[in-house]
Structure formats: C-alpha cells, structure tokens
Design brief:
Blueprint (H helix, E strand, L loop, with lengths): L3 H7 L8 H16 L2 E11 L24 H12 L5 E6 L8 H11 L5 E5 L5 H10 L3 E7 L3 H7 L8 H5 L1 H7 L4 E6 L6 H18 L4 E5 L18 H14 L4 E4 L5 H7 L6 E3 L29 H10 L3 E3 L11
Parallel strand pairs: 1-2, 1-8, 1-9, 2-3, 3-4, 4-5, 5-6, 6-7, 7-8
Helix pairs in contact: 1-10, 2-10, 3-4, 4-5, 9-10
Length: 339
C-alpha cells in the first residue's frame, strides 16, 4: 500500500528519474481497476456571467466580453447537437453568478438535458448540501469543483473580489456533494498557480480523504494546466509535460481506484500518449463557449479558455480503437430508481 509519505516521494525530484517504472505499475493498476476503457464526455456551458474576479480566468467580472446565458430552448438545441455525436455523459458549466444562474435555473436545464443524457455532472459555484441535493433530485449525478489552488495565501491573492474569496466554503464543497449523494465527485487544482508538487500533493490528500470516507461515491481527480485566457494571465510556475506525467503516475499509484480526467487543455499528441498511463476519462468535441456546440461563433458567448485538442467525438473514438482501447459513451443509467 502507498501511504501519504510514499505519495510525496513519488512527486519528488528524485522520483522524476524513475518515471518508466512508475508508468509500468500505473498501467497495470489502471487495467486492473478500469480495464482498457476511456469514458468520453463533453462540457456544455450554460452561462458565462460571473460575480468573481479571478485574475486567471476569462469570465472574471472585470473583463468586458460577450456575456450570454442560454434559454431553455437553447439548452435543448445544444443537447440535440451534442447527443447526435453519441455522447451520453455531459458536464454542464456556468460562470459563478448565482444571480444569473440560480439553482432553480440549473435544475430546469437539467430537466431538459435528462431527455438526452444518462449522466449529467455540474461544474458551477459551490453550493450548500441542501442545494446540491435539490440538483441531485433534478437528475444531476456528478460534481466537478476545483479548489484552483490549495495554498490559502495564494488563493487570497488570486481571488481578490467576489464570493469565491471564501476559501473554506469552496474547500468543503466536494464533501457537501458527497453528503448530497452525488454518484461521482471530481476535484483538482489548476496547475501553474502555485508549486505543482505541493498542489498535486494536497489534491491527492483531499481526494484520498473523500474516497476513504464516502465509500459509495466515485472520486476522481482532474489534472488541468492553465491555458491562455482573455486577461492574458501568465502562470507563476511552469508545469512541463514531464511534470504532468509524474503527477498522473503518482496519483494513480497512490489511488488505484480513482478516476483521472484529462481535458482538451492538453494537445492531441500528449493526450494520446497519456491514455496508457492512468487516465480514465477524456473530453471530446469540446467548446468552452456558451452555446458553442450549436450556435455560430458570432452568437455564442466568449469562451473560458483556449483548447488545445480540437478533435471531435469520432476522431477520439478512432484514436482509442487504434490504441486497443474501448471508448465508453455511456457506462451506466438509473432504472426504476436503481442503478
């Protein structure tokens, strides 16, 4: 068994000289717990209105950009476009503005989306347990929420304005999601905002705590690196490809049963190479613009960040098949209230 000290050692500079051995073990563990499968999903942005000033984000309230919020008719149009690709897992996102995207609005959107998708996860502002429960009752089964940065001092500097300044309310949000009986909870740090070894370590500790306490919740970790954005924020810390690989391998060895998600923030060639090293979930056919799956570029809202891998669902499926992996577009559903 790998303990916390071992996990820290796997993230150390010394361990960087042993990535090949780590990769072999990570590949073995991933196949043991997940088989040769990759779950595909796509994000769908409902709104880019935001009440926070996060210095690294395009959606910051300080930025003058095209703001948009989907009507329920537009939500259905997006759903039709996405479901036509075969995907049945979707992640819905909003800017962090309860005024523009209240829980009632998100619940109404979920009711529309349930006609098209078997699994709906949310990546929105942190909620209370009761609010998460309301969305679970509406049909949400997954929660993604990044702490962004675990270093509390750096967190305060990067979030100078808005409700997101409340570090501890955000830190406890994943646990509130578990208490609300989310089927899956996904966490992560935005790599580049602080020293990556420290941030990866605390992400792993957080995920391990949740996995050990909430045995009926599937815990996953995302490994996102910061991407170019409207504000032109330059990350303070460099996270190169080798460092990203080391994080993924260390997380897999520390948490063999945890899902690991890799988004289109990363370029296609790198994502291909990481398939066999512990990743279990990948996004496909991505747009970070509000209405970006069905609207023209002129009518959709400004995107959150630039993506690197622009491949559609069919291209991702082809790549996975060639590598001997099974792309999973739907892996579960509720039947008569039972999974």
């Amino acid at each position: 068994m790998i303990n916390e000290k071992d996990f820290l050692a796997l993230l150390s500079p010394a361990a960087a000289e042993h990535l090949e051995l780590m990769a072999q073990k990570a590949h073995q563990l991933t196949n043991q717990h997940f088989g040769r499968t990759i779950q595909l999903y796509t994000p769908m942005y409902l709104s880019n209105h935001c009440s926070n000033h996060c210095v690294y984000c395009s959606f910051s309230v300080k930025h003058h950009l095209m703001r948009k919020k989907l009507t329920l008719a537009e939500v259905e149009k997006e759903a039709e476009s996405i479901s036509a690709t075969g995907l049945r897992h979707i992640l819905i996102l909003t800017g962090e503005s309860p005024k523009h995207s209240p829980v009632s609005y998100i619940a109404d959107c979920v009711k529309v989306l349930k006609r098209y998708f078997d699994s709906i996860a949310i990546e929105i502002y942190p909620l209370t347990t009761e609010e998460y429960q309301r969305l679970v009752d509406a049909g949400v089964d997954g929660l993604t929420i990044y702490q962004e940065v675990y270093d509390e001092g750096m967190y305060s500097k990067l979030h100078p304005q808005g409700p997101k300044k409340n570090y501890h309310f955000r830190l406890d949000a994943p646990e509130r999601g578990c208490l609300a009986k989310m089927r899956g909870v996904n966490i992560g740090a935005l790599l580049g905002l602080e020293d990556w070894r420290k941030e990866a370590f605390f992400t792993g500790l957080h995920a391990n705590y949740l996995q050990n306490k909430y045995l009926d919740t599937e815990i996953s970790v995302s490994i996102p690196r910061i991407r170019p954005n409207v504000g032109g924020f330059t990350p303070k810390f460099d996270v190169n490809d080798k460092s990203l690989v080391q994080i993924i391998l260390a997380v897999r060895l520390f948490m063999p049963r945890a899902g690991i998600a890799l988004s289109t923030r990363e370029r296609a060639e790198l994502r291909n190479n990481l398939v066999k090293l512990g990743v279990t979930k990948m996004s496909a056919g991505v747009s970070t613009e509000v209405g970006g799956h069905s609207d023209s570029e002129e009518s959709s809202g400004t995107g959150q960040f630039q993506i690197s891998d622009e491949r559609d669902v069919e291209e991702m499926k082809t790549m996975l098949y060639k590598m001997g992996y099974q792309p999973v577009l739907k892996d579960w559903q509720f039947l008569n209230g039972e999974m």
